[in-house]
Amino acid sequence: MSEVLVRNLNENLKSQVSLYEKLDSLERNKQKALIKNDIAEIEKITVQQERLLIEASRLEKERLLWAEAIGGELGRVPQDLTLAELAEHFPVLEGVRLDLDNVIGRLREIHDINTKLLQQAMKIVEFTVGLLTHQEQNTYTHPKRKEPEENRRLHLVDWRI
After folding, report:
1. pLDDT tens, 78-101?
2. What pTM did the predictor assign?
3. CA 6 to chain centre
4. Among candidate residues 103, 73, 68, the one with its CA nearest the CA of residue 89
């Protein structure tokens, strides 16, 4: 029975590798859109990513069921089983383990770069808003506190509540 379980787990993991490769491709396209500041393209890619992440969640739940069944046969708790350990017991899983490690590593790298690009874009927006409003400090204050008349400034955009 382990052979059928391992085959099903292997197919599940191959599906996950394929899905993560699609996500990696989308992240690379998103990076190009971020550099171009193409908001419409970023939104389009984000919608595609959300669909793939829903599918990834479904595959992960399925994977946990296969791992639980295999863990039961091995007398191990599925949470304690790693793919590397399973590949030691079942060599057929070694290829998919390497593929999964590789694609997740690439995905993590591009995601980290995109996160930094987004953070830089937010700093630029914050700086620009600060320039437009001539604000030197945070304007979110308690509504009942009044500023002395001499401290008030005329701002292009008035952020006071």
Report:
1. 778 888 888 988 999 999 999 999
2. 0.74
3. 28
4. 73
Query: How far, in Å, CA of 83 to CA of 67, rounded?
Result: 9
Please give the Cα distance from 149 to 104 (Å, whole number). 57
pLDDT of residue 42: 93
Closest by Cα among 44, 77, 141 to 36? 44
Q: Which of 97, 104, 16, 14 is nearest to 53 (CA)?
A: 16
DSSP string, the chain: -HHHHHHHHHHHHHHHHHHHHHHHHHHHHHHHHHHHT-HHHHHHHHHHHHHHHHHHHHHHHHHHHHHHHHHHHHT--GGG--HHHHHHH-GGGHHHHHHHHHHHHHHHHHHHHHHHHHHHHHHHHHHHHHHHHT-SS-----TT----GGG----SS----
Q: Give me the residue label for tokens 């550099």.
A: 35
The answer to whether 133 and 159 have CB atoms below 8 angstroms apart is yes
